[in-house]
Amino acid sequence: MEPIAHFEAASTLAIVVSSNEPLLFLSEDQKVIAASASFCRAFEIDPATVSGRGLSELGEGEWAMPKLASLLKATASGAAQIEAYEIDLKRPNCEMRNLIVNARTLDDGDKDRIRLLLAVTDVTDARAEARIKDDLVRDKAILLQEVQHRVANSLQIIASVLMQSARRVQSEEARGHIQNAHHRVMSIAALQRQLSTSRGGNVGLRNYFTQLSQSLGASMIEDPNRLSISVTVDDSAVDADISVSLGLVVTELVINAPKHAFPHERTGTITIDYRSAGKDWSLSVTDDGIGMQKGSDAPKAGLGTGIVEALAKNLQSAIQLSDADPGTAITISHQENTGLRADLPEAA
Question: What region holds the Histidine kinase/HSP90-like ATPase domain (predicted)?
Fold first, then answer.
């Protein structure tokens, strides 16, 4: 060997042996030329027994892995390269270790022979921690769904009690207030039940609004032939928190429609429409009832109006009341990077 080549080979050996990382310096036929002290410590191998032995002979034979040997042979020939190859190392009387190995050819100054550098990383503890975190996330999601399901059931019980109370009271005004409370509780129960079945933190609005409208219709529309609720929604999906606010807005506007748009047993349809483009979206609840009333006939702003205004502000959206000809349309819209003012007229 030339002096320069001999110096380079000696330098390579010194670097490998003193490395803080588990390294093996191998010949083309997978004989160990040198092993780092960290490799010997990590896998409990006597450093004095390493040099000159085959990779498959290290320890008690646990490194005899046909696929790893095949990949190293292909790497030596230049046909492949080992990058982040995962192996499970099972040593007698020891727990299995999850390892990631990388290998490449290494020039030690002698052009006539091929050398391999094998780096080993133990990821057992990291993988175990990751599994624990995944289990915790999954358990938390299951618990949250169970809580939401129980809340929905409790709300339905409360709604049933409210309806029984409404039947017993003599005052029409008091009965109306209790029935409104019943509708709101039922709608929130529907929201909770829908959230309990959602996955990945996102809620598909088409199915969400459809189920919500069915719940509202069942609780507040005695004759489906007189009033109906239709839903027109695109493929939008939003975060669960946003879906709750949107659902509450829909609930308030739908509850409001039969009282003001369809008096005296008038027939008609309430339409829920949602569409989005990028981060911009609009939600509208439209009826084909008697239309907007003005002056002394206009209904006074109540609890529902305050709720919708607060929700719209929270959603950073604007409220617009318009003539649907026939009927009335209330639109909640959000435009990204645009200053919008939520202002619901008294007639809402």
Answer: 241-338
